[in-house]
Fold this protein.
Amino acid sequence: MHNRLVRVAMIVILLGVLAGCGDQRILEKQGFIYSIGYDWLAKGKSAEGSVPGNKVKKDQLSVTVWLPVVSAESGRQHPLILQTVASTGKEGRFRLAKQTELSLASGQMRTALFNLQLASRGIMPYLDGFMRDPAVSQRLKIVVVDGTANEMLKKEYPSHMNTGPYIDHLLEKEVMNNRVPESTLYSFMRDYMDDGVDSVAPIIKQQGTHIEASGIALFDGDRYISRIDSDQTLIFAFLKGSFKYGEINIDLADQERKGEKAMFSSLAGNSKVKIKTLPGERLYRADISIKIHGILLEYLGDLQLNMESDKERLEKAIAAHINNEAESMVKELQKLGVDSIGIGKHVRNSLSYKEWKNIDWKAVYSNMDIRCNTKVTIQSVGKFEK
């Protein structure tokens, strides 16, 4: 009996070892896509990297993937970049698979890049494909490229050997600093399906030997329609909700305050929206209360910040500046007809389901009275303090 148990145990162990070897051989044949890029290729244009003069005869899609590959000889990792032209995203993946001996897998995909031209035509066909693939993570980052995704992925950056992780880590840092909003497959689809808010995504751009975040892409449904430039993205964060970190450089100069500037760090705070129903049919007003506190890193001006009265004057001046910027941004969003900060969710929550469904929210939103009220608290003025 004892010998039989020993033999059974040895067989189980042997099977486990063999199974492990089998899995290893399978993994060696996998090509795990890290980044995928989509570019719109208009009729008569040539795909980047294609034979010169080889122009497409109809509107097409350029699909590029970046994946890390380990050399069997040296054991070192190096990037593999594949590119093809297709009519759809799925056809593109099929054509890419024919270019390599590896089986392309989506389980490690971190970023999906869409150039502006393609994003303006709608990205839902590609997001729908991701949603249908159980291997694709809901944390997949959705990104808009000012330029071409192909050029960005294939370019070598001297300070960053691996472009895929470089883009991924850059976005994580910029999100943490509130310079761009987080936009994952989950959050983009959540806002896309929500009738009280419109989706947004970060915009990145190739600048010489590096890549930088250059703004926020504004979507109407699944179509890109406009952007918020990088110098205004923190204002968007103030309007959107709570924020824990950020830096902002404020130019307070006018006819009376020549050359006055202030730089804030460690910004934190939140915004709250209150909806008021006004007399008349389907008229509403939104009051956005923004509270910000932070540390003054630098100040150029005539105020004596070791005096409480001057400190309060600076707080009010900064609050007025931010308030003007916030209200200007809200008006621009209304003009574009996109509710990127989610005012509609607050209006919807103040109504019954029937009342909400009976209003034309797009029309109501575009003409709605939206006001901002900003309060700034300077927690520390550093060397200016007594």
Observations:
- Residues 308-336 form the longest helix (29 residues).
